[in-house]
Amino acid sequence: MIASTRRSFLAAATLSAAPLPALAADRTDWHALGEDVKSEMAWAWDHYRTKAWGRDEIKPISGTFSSFVLPDRHLGLSLIEAMDTLWVMGLDDRFNDALHWVMSELSFDIDGEVQVFEIAIRIVGGLLSAHHAGGEPKLLALARDLTDRLMPAFATKTGLPYRYVNLRSGKVRDPQTNPAEIGTYLPEFGTLSKLTGDRRYYDAAKRAQVALFERRSKIGLLADTIDAETGQWLSRRATVGPPSDSYYEYLWDGWQLFGDRDCKRMYDVCTAAILRHQQDRRDGRLWFADVDFKTGAILNRNQIELASFYGGLLAQGGAHATGVACTMAWSWLQDRYGVLPEGFDYGTDQVTHASNKLRPELADGAFNLWLLDHDPRWRAIGRTHYLAMKRWNRAAYGYADLADVTSDPKRQSDHCPGYWWSEQMKYYYLLFADTPRFDYRRNYLSTEGNVLLGFRRP
Ligand code: DMJ
Fold it and tell me: What are the domain boundaries of the chain?
């Protein structure tokens, strides 16, 4: 419960998208703001409990639901994604309720095809982070069973995985893939290897990362589409946005989480090439252009919101000042529209995609920077992100995507992605609350916000 004076500050801030007071005069009660995040999480969870229990995603305007993993079945995606967030917030009854559902309902023996990347980061990662939180062995067994079902996708000559696999038959499909779907496995699979003593998971994930790295161009860049069977590139565009983003993140993470020197070297080589060829300053702001991976020539200046995590990664990797400049460019864009649009072209100064799919990336970047230097501006960026979300995305039964961030008022659309439960609500809470359940010095959060290291059980 928060005191009424605090409530009125939050209410007033929620009503206005205007820039918040200067940091020098900042009297924000961060603990109260953390409590506010927790109470919003509990409120949204209770609607999910009533309206969409065990379903993949709630539709927060109509109070109905939609599936994500499979067209005609639900795997409790939001519930699994939410578990470690509930735990770190101390919402223990709700965590235990979710745990009970997982223990009694969840099975992966399904004749259905899933996207390997999404399942690994969301469900394998969600089960492992819930295991890290609560220690229940069945969660680890489920994560292992699911990963075993994904493994056929990695059995290629090149080591580059297929995109889809059937959970029961192991039949694979779609070799036309990209860096994120090739190289976003090591923290989840490596944690599984560590906990089970079975190296196969770590080795498959790392082999995929290395196989892609070895195909970099002479100037050290990766393009964004490749054939997993032949290992031939199918495009020339190098980007730090999707579908390449988390490839770079997981190179660094392999070093951070496991001390794997190969990962650090690959990260350093890729990052040096990106910094050399993709940095582009406009009006004093730093962006990363899409370039031709063989020549470095700029292809376009369109920015996809998902790339707003990148400043946090650069800072983690040692390029602190560059990471700060990158994050401040995205913060400027956030201040301009209230909520980041999915696409913005800094060359033409135009929004290219006006929606926002309830995205967490800028809060992710701010949180990673906060962990590194505790500069108050990262908390302020997280607060702006959170209060804008409360103002614009809150619907009758939870938080909703925005169809158009440029309209006035901003238009909502009837969908809440699973990652909302795992990502921004956790980033905000950790950023504001100073909880004893989290080790702020030694920790690891995956690309999906799953905590695989750093929880402290009371
Ligand atoms: C999340 O599923 C992960 O962060 C992923 O790496 C890309 N972005 C989405 C959320 O926007």
Answer: 35-74+301-432
pTM score? 0.94
CA 152 to chain centre: 25
- At 73, the amino acid letter reads R
Query: At residue 9, what are phi and psi to the nearest 5 degrees?
Result: -60, -45
Amino acid at 212: L
Helix, strand, coil shares of the chain, percent, nearest 5, are 50, 15, 35
Nearest to 213 by CA among 248, 256, 167, 173: 248
Q: Of the residues 362, 447, 450, 451, which should be mutated to test ligand 1's pocket, given the most ligand atoms within 8 Å of the CB? A: 447
CATH of 35-74+301-432, one of 3.40.50.300, 1.10.287.1770, 2.60.40.420, 1.50.10.10: 1.50.10.10
Mutate to test the pocket of ligand 1, among 57, 246, 357, 446 (most ligand atoms within 8 A of CB): 246
The whole-angstrom separation of Cα 323 and Cα 126 is 28
CA-to-CA distance for 353 and 330, rounded, in angstroms? 15
pLDDT, mean of each 10-residue run, the chain (458 residues) = 31 37 72 98 98 98 97 96 98 98 98 98 98 98 98 98 98 98 98 98 98 98 98 98 98 98 98 98 98 98 98 98 98 98 98 98 98 97 98 98 97 98 98 98 98 95
**Residue 104 amino acid letter:** S
Instruction: Please identify, by atom number, the ligand 1 atom nearest to the C-alpha of residue 309.
Output: 4
Query: Encoding tokens for residue 234?
Result: 């199918």
Of 334, 290, 283, which Cα lies nearest the Cα of 308? 334
C-alpha 142, offset from chain centre:
22
Query: For position 26, what pLDDT does the model report?
Result: 80
- Residue with token string 């004076």: 5
Q: What's the chain's Rg over C-alpha atoms? A: 21
Neighbours of 28 (CB within 10 A): 19
Per the CB < 8 A criterion, the answer to whether 340 and 403 are in contact is no
Tokens of 257: 């989480």
Which residues contact ligand 1 via a Cβ below 6 A?
A: 246, 306, 359-361, 419, 447-448
Virtual CA dihedral for 390, 98, 426, 118, nearest 10 degrees? -100
Ligand 1 atom nearest to CA at 180: 6
Provide the token pair at 304. Answer: 């996809």
Residue pair 72/412 in contact by the 8 Å Cβ criterion: no
398 has which bridge partners?
A: 395
